[in-house]
Amino acid sequence: RNEYIARLCSFPLLILDDGCLRCILCGLPDLHLLYNGGFFMGLRSSPLAYTILPSSAGGLGLFQSFDEWIEFERRLREKYKSGYVPSEVFLAVRRKDDFVVGMIDFRHPLSDFLKNFGGNIGYSVRPSERRKGYASEMLELVLPFCRVFGESKILVTCDKENVASQRTIIKNGGVMENEIVDTVGLSKSGIIQRFWISI
């Protein structure tokens, strides 16, 4: 599979690199290439990262083909119209073996739904690679990128029961504003925590 990552890195839109992990900004052709290479098999996001809304990349792990995902995106755009929010999609690639450990996307601007429930950023880590600090590293790498779009603070949300995600957010400077009742059924606990990170 290294050939796919090598091709992706040959003409990248952007690579954020800390020496151990690379977050590679992907365009649609890149995602198509990687989908065909099987990189999204076994990669599942938390419901907050993909479920209904204007998040784009998180749903990639749910579909059998790239075309299915594109059709899903088209339906979202049609359904939510001006409420549809595009995102910048980054693959998190471990440098030592070119293994895709996760993905993270930056959604902007915030729609009403994202202000309440989804936030600016959604991320997921491959189940086999969890509890290794990758989520925190991915978030740390992407936060400076968000400033390019004029953001001074970023909203990140998580399920109240998702202790690992809470730690990831707090480690990156997240300050909890409040907890809200999940009226849209995205969380297991029924409560969503909303954190702001100043950048």
General description of the model:
With 199 residues, the chain is an alpha+beta fold. A hairpin with a 3-residue loop joins strand 1 and strand 2. Helices cover 33% and strands 27% of the residues. The chain contains seven helices and eight strands. About 9% of the residues have low confidence. The longest helix is centred in the middle third of the chain and has 15 residues. The chain has a five-stranded antiparallel β-sheet, with helices on both faces. It has a three-stranded antiparallel β-sheet with strand order 6-8-7, with helices on both faces. It is globular and about 40 Å long.
Number of helices: 7
Determine the mean pLDDT.
Answer: 79
H and E string: HEEHHHEEHEHEHEE
Mind telling me the C-alpha Rg? Answer: 16 Å
Characterize the main sheet: 5 strands, antiparallel
- Residue share in helix: 25-40%
| Distance between the ends | 35 Å
SS-derived structural category: alpha+beta
Low-confidence parts, pLDDT < 50 over ≥5 residues?
A: 42-58
- Specify the overall morphology: globular
The count of DSSP E runs of length 2 or more, i.e. the number of strands, is 8
Query: Taking strands numbered 1, 2, ... along the chain, how are they ordered across the largest sheet?
Result: 1-2-3-4-5
Portion in beta strands: 25-35%
Short description:
The protein is α+β, with helices and mostly antiparallel strands.
Write the layout of secondary structure elements.
Blueprint: H1 2-10, E1 14-17, E2 21-26, H2 28-36, H3 47-50, H4 66-80, E3 87-94, E4 99-107, H5 112-118, E5 121-125, H6 134-146, E6 153-159, H7 163-171, E7 175-181, E8 191-198
Antiparallel strand pairs: 1-2, 2-3, 3-4, 4-5, 6-8, 7-8
